[in-house]
Design goal:
Elements: H1 2-14, E1 27-31, E2 37-41, E3 52-55, H2 73-79, E4 84-88, H3 101-119, E5 125-130, H4 132-143, E6 149-155, H5 165-177, H6 180-189, E7 191-192, H7 194-204, H8 206-218, H9 223-237, E8 242-243, H10 244-256, H11 259-262, E9 264-268, E10 271-274, E11 282-287, H12 295-299, E12 311-316, H13 322-325, H14 333-348
Parallel strand pairs: 3-4, 3-5, 5-6, 6-11, 11-12
Antiparallel strand pairs: 1-2, 2-4, 7-8, 9-10
Length: about 350
């Protein structure tokens, strides 16, 4: 009888506000500017260790790090005792069509790192980025050796696009056409609008979309399973778009020319970033079922980041979103991040003076 009442309640909830309302971790605004709002998550006790700055990819919201209480990297890091910050880029519209990697790599992220460090007593900052957020973190650390960066963690961030099944097809098409078909369309549209991003993400996970009715039927009395499903739906339904220039750069430089693997990323005729400029300890994490950044494409970064004081690669089970926000992430990706951050903390601890 109890299961039946739960099932009936869940049926009603699915057709209304959902089985679990969205409750993001409370935060405070450090500064609020277009495409660069910096938030600090609230703690109930003093922080220990270096602060963490979460760098999201474009075309998603900051909820990727805070899907729901049991699927929140934010809460996990807070429980580790860290002060946790995140950058919120807000909505991306046609008016933002000229924004490129330069804005993030040379301005938005460096400014945030400086603010986080100053807000934490001039402490070095541990960067964590998922997907393109990892790409932006790596490029920022490589381009600005003077920034107070303690470490870089890139989750689901590809370095070799030849090893990505779906992306490799787009790469070959771009090589045949010189990339003009895609870049011309993006230039006219001013970017990839949010509706295009949302549709693309759903197509990429078409098996999930097709089997969703059966999933609901099988789990109608499992509130936790339905809450996880709806958190992913909510995440996809709120995706913003890509700025035109940023997307064209990603398509030409990163996908067609595979410049992350070559070690030099050209953002313009007078702007090239040497990845050997990254010297901070770095962690790369790849997913076994990641269709957008295969584990092998992520691992290729070991051979690129040759100046980093340390480069670790860890393979974890899961899809592109699953490795950062899935139900198993706590025991896989997040545990790996915790071990790495702890090792960085121990290696940089100032030794006690001898008497």
């Amino acid at each position: 009888m109890g299961s039946l009442s739960v099932a009936l309640r869940n049926v009603v909830a699915l057709f209304n506000d959902g089985v679990e309302p969205y409750a993001p971790t409370p935060s405070d605004i450090v500064y609020d500017q277009p495409h660069r709002t910096l938030l600090r998550y609230r703690r109930s006790s003093p922080a220990t260790g270096a602060p963490v700055l979460l760098v999201p990819p474009l075309a998603v919201t900051i909820s990727c790090y805070d899907m729901r209480p049991s699927q929140s990297l934010v809460r996990f890091l807070l429980d580790l005792g860290r002060e946790v910050y995140v950058l919120d880029y807000g909505e991306i519209t046609y008016a933002d069509r000229d924004l490129g990697f330069e804005e993030w790599v040379d301005d938005i992220v460096p400014t945030a790192i400086g603010a986080v460090s100053a807000d934490s007593g001039d402490s070095p900052v541990d960067l964590i980025g998922w997907s393109f957020g990892g790409t932006i973190s790596v490029l920022t650390a490589a381009a600005h050796a003077d920034l107070p960066i303690g470490s870089v963690t890139a989750v689901g961030t590809p370095f070799d696009q030849r090893r990505n099944g779906q992306i490799s097809l787009a790469r070959k098409f771009g090589q045949l056409t010189g990339g003009r078909v895609v870049t011309a369309a993006i230039r006219v549209a001013g970017g990839v609008p949010k509706y295009g991003v949302r549709a693309g993400f759903r197509i990429q996970s078409i098996d999930r979309e097709l089997t969703k009715p059966w999933f609901i039927a099988r789990n109608i009395a499992d509130t936790e399973a339905l809450a996880r499903m709806q958190s992913v739906d909510r995440f996809m339904d709120t995706m913003p778009g890509y700025p035109g220039r940023f997307y064209r750069q990603a398509y030409r430089q990163l996908i067609i020319r595979n410049e992350m693997l070559r070690g030099t990323v050209h953002l313009g005729p007078d702007r090239a970033i040497q990845l050997t400029g990254l010297t901070a300890p770095t962690q790369l994490i790849g997913g076994t079922k990641d269709a957008l950044a295969s584990s092998a494409s992520v691992a290729a970064g070991i051979g690129v980041l040759t100046s980093a004081s340390e480069v670790r690669f860890t393979e974890v089970p899961g899809s592109h979103l699953g490795i950062i926000a899935g139900p198993a992430a706590r025991d896989t990706t997040w545990a790996t991040i915790a071990d790495f951050l702890d090792s960085v903390r121990l290696s940089t601890r100032t030794p006690a003076p001898t008497r």
